[in-house]
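Entry 0007
Protein: FMN-dependent oxidoreductase (Nitrilotriacetate monooxygenase family)
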Amino acid sequence: MARPFHLGWFTYFGPDEWDAPFASAGGSPWDGAFHTDLARALERACFDLVLLEDSLAVSAEAGGTRELLLRTGVRAPRHDPAPLSALMAAATQHLGVVTTLSTLLYPPFLVARLLSTLDSLSGGRTGWNIVTSTDDAEARNAGLPALPERDERYAGAQEHVDVVSALLDSWDPDAVVMDRTTHTYADHTRVHAVHATGPRYPVAGPLTTVRSPQGRPLYCQAGGSPTGRAFAARNADLVLAVANGPAAMKEVRDDVRRRAVDAGRDPDDLRVLFLVAPVLGETEGEARAALARSAAHPTALATTLAKFSAYTGVDLTALDPDAPLPPPEQLLAGSARGSLGTLVKFAQVDAEGRPSPKPLRELAADAGTNSSLDLVGTPEHVADQLEAAAEQVGGDGFLITTPFHRLSRHYVVQVTEGLVPVLQRRGLVRTRYTAGTLRGHLAEF
Ligand SMILES: Cc1cc2nc3c(=O)[nH]c(=O)nc-3n(C[C@H](O)[C@H](O)[C@H](O)COP(=O)(O)O)c2cc1C
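Output (structure tokens):
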């Protein structure tokens, strides 16, 4: 039997599945109530964490207009996940809450202060999804002419993270003395300047906040390129990944663990969670029909193409959806700006390494589900597949998301009240929390 694994949930502060028969938030989740309900449901099901993704621009990469992004609601609108993470933590007692903050747009001092405050508010349940941004439009909102090349982005991110870590350490655990005899709140000899001297972030410190329960909130990262994986292996406590099938998942996990060793770390200090999007039904036929309905939604293709166009800067909407994807090198024209990431991972290559002749439309349907495994069926059947994959990959767990990025309470119930109880009965996922912090949840097994 596979050893127990961790469960996370991947979502965003944006419109729910507002035009579906089971629309929950009706397209307006902006008061946070839909997401605090989600947090409570995830805690009832003993999830380790919820992760809120983010993007910081309304990009016009698809078709040279913002129309597609706004029409589909993919990547925009997005409200700020950090205050939402505080609400979600306040609505729960155990669930970890991970928020996304881009190293390109947030200065390290404000990242450290925000993370420290969130970690204190949540009693040690905060995590940081470290992203370097993927979009020229995001860079322009940071005052840059364009997104820096990948190596420069990750070099900047490394300096950024080092400064954040130093700032989080700037208050010793015993700095707050509250000595009534001397009327001293904090001992100034235990609060240290940072004096970072790097070229991008010469920050003096110390931080203004007292040390938070975890000291350093959980660092999460999802680099897919070799540079991104090396960065994740060096810095992250939790690595998030998408791969196409168990063999590719194993390759990613083994590679990240190898890179962690190269960076002088114990690979068992890292957890790798794979993104999956189960499609559940009371019968396999029902689940297949639900998937077919989602794939046939009038905006499904547009959503996926808009998303990948924004990631890569390549206008995929200009391509013929019924023709195979041109070679990625040709599409990206030698740029290190973005990667075709999951889209290419889902273009099954043949024995000679050539991309499959799958039309872009089909490729987008495969990659658009965001799932590392093809999980369609009853809760028992999907649990079988997760169990088998965890055994084969040696995996640490799964990050559950919705197929085609559209979230409804109906879907949350299917997972938390259908799939998770089966996994719990098999002893594969937790049935109670024992640790007090997010870091503690992940260290438990
Ligand atoms: C599960 C997952 C979550 C991600 N969340 C975000 C996000 O919230 N914001 C963002 O800008 N990028 C996000 N990314 C993109 C990654 O940070 C990264 O840029 C991408 O995987 C490409 O890897 P590379 O940077 O090594 O090229 C996410 C990727 C994955 C797989």
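Curator remark: Residues 150-168 form the longest helix (19 residues). The mean pLDDT is 92.
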